[in-house]
């Protein structure tokens, strides 16, 4: 049976902007907001009055757990040196990063000592690992990594959630990211991994360089602009990626491209740390659109609501969705 694409787009494609610019110029007079119900059409920006009960967007929030069990709440810690021991200095910068610096000889360590950085729902954070690899963590994500990569054959880290990596080049020590159903091996490259446990698949998107995805005994090589997906069967599927959409979270946006309502609301729930309640609504209805992640949730929901196909209300910190 052919799947019905009940697409409710709410944004403009670049091509459509040029084709309809003249018509829009005539129609917008006297209208506060202009919407279309055709595939690939985007919304215009508009002003939304905040609701009395509203939810602010997420921000820089994370905890750093050291090998001895000490937990540092990074968003509450003062800028500057956080830890200085065993040849490792951990600093918090003024622009909201945590940076690892190797300052001494770690040869005495017989086995790796692991640290963990975790973002809550509504949190994001940046970290520079001991080898210089830069990592951006999305909301509700965790990265486990050695406090130093000295004396290790490879630079292996473990991810749950979503992160963008700019891996430092070191041809003799591959950088490996392990998630719950795959491993990604690189020498030095830029890539994004989305591996949330409440999603049905792990997505790996390559922006620059070359990576190898390993899952269930199978291997796939990705080229820039490609994306692999791994599902429960652990089969690896390759396709061309919508890089702009995949990297939207890092660039301060939500971008949805014919995406089911339930998937959209999982992203909104993670970022705004809010519970979602569905009441007699088709969770598989498809939407497309873009909106800033820095807006209050009421504006994000209002832009979806103006399609006329879904309605929201915020009560006691919950988003309730109806027809």
TrEMBL record:
All copies of domain FecR protein, residue ranges: 116-212
Membrane-crossing segments per the record: 15-36
Chain ranges of the Protein FecR C-terminal domain: 254-321
Keyword rRNA-binding: no
Cross-referenced Gene3D superfamilies: 2.60.120.1440, 3.55.50.30
Keywords: Membrane, Transmembrane, Transmembrane helix
Family matches, as InterPro entries: FecR, FecR_C, Ferrdict_sens_TM
Molecular function terms, GO-annotated: sigma factor antagonist activity
Keyword Transmembrane helix attached: yes
Highest taxon in the source lineage: Bacteria
Protein name: DUF4974 domain-containing protein
């Amino acid at each position: 049976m052919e799947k019905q694409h009940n697409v409710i787009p709410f944004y403009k494609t670049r091509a459509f902007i040029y084709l309809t610019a003249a018509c829009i110029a005539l129609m917008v007079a006297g209208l506060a907001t202009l919407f279309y119900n055709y595939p690939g059409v985007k919304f215009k920006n508009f002003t939304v009055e905040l609701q009395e009960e509203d939810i602010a967007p997420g921000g820089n929030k994370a905890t750093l757990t050291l090998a001895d069990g000490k937990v540092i709440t990074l968003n509450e810690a003062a800028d500057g040196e956080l830890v200085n021991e065993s040849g490792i200095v951990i600093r918090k910068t003024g622009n909201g990063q945590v940076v690892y610096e190797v300052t001494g000889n770690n040869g005495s360590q017989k086995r790796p000592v692991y640290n963990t950085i975790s973002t809550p729902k509504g949190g994001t954070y940046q970290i520079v690992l001991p080898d210089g690899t830069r990592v951006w963590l999305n909301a509700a994500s965790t990265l486990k990594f050695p406090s130093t990569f000295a004396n290790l054959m490879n630079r292996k880290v473990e991810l749950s959630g979503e992160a963008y990596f700019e891996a430092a080049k070191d041809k003799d020590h591959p950088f490996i990211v392990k998630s719950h159903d795959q491993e990604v091996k690189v020498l030095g490259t830029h890539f994004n991994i989305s591996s949330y446990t409440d999603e049905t698949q792990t997505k790996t998107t390559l922006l620059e360089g070359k990576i190898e995805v390993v899952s269930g005994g199978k291997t796939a090589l990705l080229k820039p602009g490609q994306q692999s997906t791994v599902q429960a069967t652990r089969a690896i599927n390759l396709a061309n990626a919508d890089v702009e959409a995949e990297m939207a979270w890092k660039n301060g946006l939500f971008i949805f491209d014919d995406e089911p309502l339930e998937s959209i609301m999982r992203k909104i729930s993670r970022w705004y740390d809010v519970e979602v309640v569905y009441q007699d609504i088709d969770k598989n209805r498809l939407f497309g659109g873009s909106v800033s992640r820095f807006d209050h949730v009421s504006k994000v929901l209002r832009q979806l609501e103006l399609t006329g196909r879904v309605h929201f209300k915020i009560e006691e910190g919950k988003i309730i969705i109806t027809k």
